[in-house]
């Protein structure tokens, strides 16, 4: 089993999402000794900018026009990222909440790899997924929760988790499992992270 592990936090060993994901992956390795993990850290990976030359390459590819050297280099980087999704049999993503959503670098990755006839198809009227990945685990993490009844409402995880689940299914993940972890930087942090690790280890048995 080959797992694509996408790291969306820049905090390294201080990150709760990375810690929980690592516990899950270690449990997978113990249960499936032949398990391979391809780690894609979006803060360390040289993600190309989706600028004019990259967009130019995208449209030239669609229209089958020749690319110049800069466009070919930009598209080669995208092609390399896409292949890592195409080679994956499972996906694991740990996502910290930033402003009730996900880090901008994760959206950059999504925009780069979500290309027609690579991760999805479009025939002019309908979209279709091109991956065949049975399951993904998404670990959603935020620092604290706000009790109901406060003056300022808190949208919780819906802005974050809804889009990520939609995108994964759009490209071909059949089942998206979610693990939500809260209170990771208040007085409940240690207890909540420990509980999330236990839950992650349990989920590995059915991954």
Please specify the SSE layout and strand pairing:
Layout: E1 2-7, H1 16-31, E2 36-41, H2 52-63, H3 69-86, E3 90-96, H4 104-113, E4 120-122, E5 127-129, E6 133-141, H5 158-171, E7 173-181, H6 189-204
Helix pairs in contact: 1-6, 2-3
Describe this structure in words.
The protein is globular. Helix 1 runs parallel beside helix 6 and helix 2 packs across helix 3. Strand 1, helix 1 and strand 2 form a beta-alpha-beta unit. It contains six helices and seven strands, in the order βαβααβαβββαβα. It is of the alpha/beta class. Helix content is about 40%, strand content about 20%.
Tell me the β content: 15-25%
- In DSSP terms (H or I, runs of 4 or more residues), the helix count works out at 6
Structural class: alpha/beta
What kind of sheet is the major sheet?
Answer: 5 strands, parallel
- The sequence of SSEs as H and E is EHEHHEHEEEHEH
Features:
single chain; two-stranded antiparallel sheet; 207 residues; 5-stranded parallel beta sheet; 6 helices; globular; alpha/beta; 7 strands
Short description:
The chain is an alpha/beta fold. Helix content is 42%, strand content 21%. The relative contact order is 0.18.
